[in-house]
Specification:
The complex is a heterodimer of chains A (127) and B (949). Chain A has 127 residues and is mainly α. Chain A has 4 helices and no strands. In chain A, helix 1 packs antiparallel against helix 2. With 949 residues, chain B is mainly alpha-helical. Helix content of chain B is 71%, strand content 2%. The longest helix of chain B has 32 residues. Chain B starts with a helix and ends with a helix. Classes of the chains: A mainly alpha (127), B mainly alpha (949).
């Protein structure tokens, strides 16, 4: 079972990083989501895997799994939702304003505003 | 007890000048003056104790783990400097009231002045050297504000910046030096450090520590070769120059040398470094001062020269020289502040500070002339003024000093410096006040109002009085202060005007005659000087700064290309390279911990996850498809949580996944549906390579950890969950109790993220954005904005979903559930209304404002936490009890539940706000009529409305 979880974490990390390195906003956001899954599972696995020992105190239970990684991962899941939502909206507004959803300023895309912005940046730099 | 107040009063009082300036400039000045007077009165109330030989202390721990405490002490030295700072500060405040013109923002000036004053007093009264450093940096910052007060003048800005760079840079050296000092001494308290001189001098780190501390002191006190910033700081208004550059800021370096004299002085290194630096500064600055045409420039270099004198005296390391240094600090402060203010009066009245354009003012401004002449005579060291006395003491010390085996070096050079100082004093007096009256002054000079010359007169009276009756007036002060500097018994000396014909007196007389001769031969000497090479420090400084700025610009242009992809590659490489290093240097076997057997379901789920992930990576150009695959992965992850004994995580993961998927779908509706193929094949292979290496690393790491045993710290949480936290669901108890502070921070972050989203989308769209929004074409299938099935289903499900939410919330403390999950469920149920029936319809029916919900949630959670203070417990200590009601039976009420309610509200508000905002933008894009009854089957509008109502 450990092998399955470890390899799944690896695959999700790899896919997440591959998508992060794409040039458009939407794949980058998906990549972040993948990376979030991987990181959360990673953190969770630090408490080792146990079956049928939920950390709910009862007289019948013989042992409990480690609750601390679970609590940390729970907040991490919710925070990552906040982060994803913010970045999605940033991407959305950026696209509506500039007409381009590229993540690179260096390669100026078809967006008019994107190009203008790079020129302004260049002008601002000390020559 | 009121010791803390002395430095704090000016800081707090700095609020008042900008407020009171509306009531007039007099009120503003009076308020400022009263604050200074209050601080002075508090200070002097301790004077009797100090003069009885006590050391007044006040201590308040700040960060005891780091040795930082908010503690102050007053001994002779601290009292002396603090009195000088506040006393001269008071005179400067009066003077500035008349000096500043109507156009100068006076409130701002006095505010800066008070801040600076507080920082200076803090420096001289701090008992803790870390606290001293804090105040030290504050003097650098506030003097920057004061020097750059006339911010419209480029010289003021440049001078301020130069002063900040030099003194701030020195401050960094000082921080390092002081940390070393505290480390060697084993304490950061000055009162302790001062007792451990032998330990410190014997330390192998003594020399580097000494160099660093001297770096701080020399830059602050403008010692050679850091002397160049002081003249440029003269672009400040004259009251600032009079205050900072005669009595306070530049004396901070000298103060530090005096303060640490018992622990640092007396070694060869101290003498060999400090004494010659002081001597060279004294000589070079006096030479330059002779040729300055700007009155304040002349005074500035003269100040540098006198600071050199004090440094040199302290550098001698003998108790007698320390007494002389203390006496000269006092004398210099009186005559130099008087001279600066006098120069300010001349500038104010004639409109120029250029010596070449002045002359003959004696008859036009008799009062000012008399005062300035007396002060400059003291500066030249003419009897019977106070400058003469301390100069004699200095000469006596210097004549006995032999440096590096050369007995004549110090006497000759000090004599030369004395000669120069006579020359510039004579030039100042004669060229400004004597000679024929001129007719081309830029203004009509006459004596200023009394408010301007009275402060000068007060100081000049002191100059004369100390000169005539030194033992009576200055004797106790010098003795008490010198005792604090030396930290031991005083040498035998007596302050008097007449010591008989001593070698020092002869040198003095010779210097007086030769100095006057030098002034008479001014033109020839100046020609000689012009033939010497004169490196201009400002040009050099500016060149260095320009190089640094260009270098910074170059490196920014190189590293900040604006390419997110490049940044990611750099970040990943920075992670992978050290990780690879760690990997190769360790063993690679798996651990011995027993693994769990695989189950068929798990293998199936694994295939689903891996398959969906890989296909998502390969086919990510089709965005909707990739999104669906992503949510498949999320589903498997939540199943994994369920399988491995984490029901709370499974619930959270699945509800977050639903919300995230809905959010991304909403966004995708407005974004392009496909990603163009842009990257070259090579680039894709490179990225795949990086990703594979990272993935293998992550997988290997997780596997290695999971196959090894571990010690958990959770035993405590499991044991205390029920008795301490009152709940059986340990994960929930950790969230709302054990680690409630984390959760509190987290809901704040979530709220901020939601508000940022609101701000991003609420801001009106520009023309281009509105055009793009209008040009979005929806697919034919999406034409039906409010499908009947969806609308009916969501409305029917709403009460059910809300009930489930409440249920999950209530059981959360004891069984899987809780505020986070309940919040997500309820938010989802509400969001479905927006999706199915449209923004306008849903928004009109929303009773609760989602922003208010975020706020209320955070407030409730915060109040619950603060509530524990009432019972004298730490923040967020939960308490609970069991109650029984008829019919309901026994039930538990815990404060943790109120906290969880806060979490619940914040989550609902944040999710609702984010998603409804996107849905609102969508509404605009749909251009559908803002119908209030969004069921497209409506046959008759009237019946529909009736039904809705």
């Amino acid at each position: 079972m450990e092998l399955l979880v470890a390899s799944a974490t690896g695959v999700m990390t790899a896919v997440g990083i591959y998508l992060l390195l794409r040039a458009r906003t939407f794949p980058v956001i998906l990549g972040l989501t993948f990376l979030t899954y991987a990181v959360n599972l990673f953190l969770f696995a630090m408490g080792r895997l146990t079956i049928n020992q939920p950390p709910v105190i009862s007289a019948l239970a013989s042992a409990y799994t480690d609750p601390l990684p679970q609590a940390l991962v729970l907040t991490a899941i919710v925070i990552s939702f906040g982060m994803t939502a913010l970045i999605v909206v940033l991407a959305l507004r950026g696209f509506l304003e500039s007409g381009s959803d590229e993540v690179d300023l260096a390669v100026s895309g078809e967006g008019d505003a994107a190009r203008v912005r790079t020129d302004e940046d260049k002008a601002r730099l000390p020559s | 007890m009121n010791l803390w107040l002395i430095p704090l009063v000016p800081f707090f009082a700095a609020v008042f000048p900008p407020l009171t300036i509306r009531s007039g400039r007099n009120v503003c000045a009076v308020v400022t003056g009263l604050a200074t007077l209050l601080a002075l009165a508090l200070l002097l109330s301790h004077a009797p104790a100090v003069y009885r030989g006590e050391i007044v202390q006040a201590r308040l721990d700040w960060l005891p783990q780091l040795g930082l405490s908010f503690s102050f002490f007053i001994d002779g030295l601290g009292l002396f400097f603090a009195t000088m700072i506040l006393g001269i500060g008071l005179l400067v405040i009066v003077y500035a009231r008349y000096y500043l013109s109507r156009n100068d923002p006076m409130g701002r000036f006095y505010a800066y002045l008070l801040l600076f004053q507080g920082a200076m007093v803090g420096v001289v009264l701090s008992d803790n050297i870390l606290l001293l450093l804090v105040f030290w940096e504050l003097t650098s910052l506030t003097s920057f504000l004061l020097i750059g007060y006339w911010r419209h003048l480029p010289e003021a800005r440049q001078g301020a910046r130069m002063a900040l760079v030099v003194t701030g840079g020195g401050g960094l050296l000082l921080i390092a030096g002081m940390l070393m000092l505290g480390n060697i001494a084993g304490s950061y308290d000055l009162s302790v450090i001062l007792q451990r001189g032998d330990l410190i001098k014997a330390s192998p780190l003594y020399l580097p520590m000494l160099l660093l501390i001297l770096g701080g002191a020399f830059t602050k006190s403008a010692q050679f070769p850091f002397h160049f910033w002081l003249p440029h700081a003269m672009a400040a208004p004259t009251p600032v120059s009079a205050y900072l550059h005669s009595a306070t800021m530049v004396k901070a370096g000298v103060f530090l040398l005096a303060r640490l004299w018992p622990v640092l002085a007396g070694t060869d290194a101290w003498f060999l470094i400090v004494a010659p630096v002081g001597l060279v500064t004294m000589l070079v600055a006096a030479w330059i001062a002779i040729f300055k045409d700007d009155l304040k420039g002349l005074l500035a270099f003269s100040t540098v020269s006198h600071l050199g004198l004090m440094t040199m005296l302290l550098g001698f390391g003998t108790p007698m020289a320390a007494v002389a240094a203390v006496f000269h600090i006092l004398n210099h402060a009186t005559f130099k502040a008087a001279l600066f203010m006098g120069a300010g009066i001349v500038d104010h009245e004639t409109g120029t500070r250029d010596i070449r354009r002045l002359g003959g003012l004696m008859t036009l401004m008799p009062i000012t002339a008399t005062l300035v002449l007396i002060a400059s005579a003291s500066m030249a060291g003419i009897a019977p003024l106070n400058g003469f006395l301390s100069k004699e003491m200095m000469l006596e010390q210097a004549l006995q000093t032999s440096y590096a085996g050369i007995p004549w070096l110090f006497p000759v050079l000090v004599g030369l410096a004395t000669l120069f100082s006579v020359a510039y004093s004579v030039r100042l007096a004669v060229a400004v006040f004597f000679g024929p009256q001129r007719h081309d002054y830029p203004a009509h000079p006459h004596d200023p109002p009394a408010g301007m010359w009275l402060p000068v007169a007060v100081l000049v009276v002191l100059v004369v009085a100390i000169g005539l009756l030194p033992a009576l007036i200055a004797g106790p002060i010098v003795a008490r202060t010198a005792m604090a500097v030396i930290g031991g018994p005083l040498p035998s000396y007596y302050l008097a005007l007449w010591h008989g014909v001593t070698p020092a007196l002869l040198v003095s007389i010779a210097a007086l005659i030769a100095g006057t001769a030098l002034f008479l031969a001014y033109r020839r000497v100046e020609a000689f000087r012009l033939s010497l090479p004169r490196p201009d420090a400002k040009t050099l400084f500016d060149r260095v700064i320009r190089r640094l700025v260009a270098g910074a610009g170059w490196s920014i242009a190189r590293s900040h290309t604006g390419s997110l992809q490049l940044y990611f590659v750099v970040i990943l490489a920075a992670v992978l390279v050290p990780a690879a290093g760690g990997f190769w240097s360790a063993s690679h076997g798996s651990g011995a911990r027993a693994t769990l057997p695989m189950s068929l379901q798990a293998v199936v789920a694994w295939f689903a996850l891996v398959g969906a992930s890989l296909v998502a990576a390969l086919r990510h150009h089709d965005r909707v498809f990739a999104l669906i695959l992503t949510s498949v992965v999320g589903l498997v992850v939540s199943l994994a949580f369920l399988q491995f004994s984490a029901p709370d995580l499974a619930l959270t993961q699945i509800s977050v996944d639903v919300v995230t998927t809905v959010l991304l779908l909403l966004a995708l509706n407005l974004l392009p549906k496909t990603t163009p193929k842009q990257s070259s094949l090579a680039l894709r292979w490179r990225d795949a390579g990086i990703a594979t290496v990272a993935g293998l690393g992550a997988a290997g790491l997780v596997y290695a950890v999971m196959t090894r045993g571990f010690e958990t710290i959770s035993t405590y949480h499991l044991e205390q969950s029920k008795p301490g936290g009152g709940g059986t669901n340990v994960v929930n108890v950790i969230l709302v109790d054990f680690r409630g502070f984390d959760t509190f921070g987290e809901i704040i972050v979530l709220g901020i993220a939601a508000l940022a989203i609101f701000a991003l989308l609420d801001h009106p769209f520009g023309r281009a954005a509105a055009r793009r929004l209008a040009s979005i074409r929806f697919a034919e299938e999406a034409r039906d904005a409010h499908p009947l099935m969806l609308v009916v289903a969501t409305r029917a499900l709403l009460p059910l979903a809300l009930t489930v939410g409440v249920y999950i919330f209530l059981r959360g403390h004891n069984l899987p559930g809780g505020g986070f999950i309940a919040g997500l469920v309820v938010a989802m149920a509400l969001i479905m209304q927006y999706m199915a029936s449209g923004y306008v319809w849903a928004n009109a029916r929303a009773r609760l404002d989602s922003q208010a919900m975020i706020g209320a949630g955070i407030v409730i959670a915060g109040l619950t936490g603060i509530g524990s203070f009432v019972f004298g417990r730490p923040f967020l200590t939960s308490s609970f009890d069991y109650f029984s009601l008829p019919l309901v039976g026994t039930f538990e009420l815990a404060t943790a539940m109120a906290f969880d309610l806060g979490v619940f509200l914040a989550v609902v508000g944040a999710v609702l706000l984010s998603l409804s905002q996107i849905s609102r933008v969508q509404q605009r894009a749909e251009r559908s009529p803002a119908t209030d009854h969004p069921m497209d089957i409506v046959l008759d509008a009237d019946t529909a409305v009736a039904k809705e109502v």
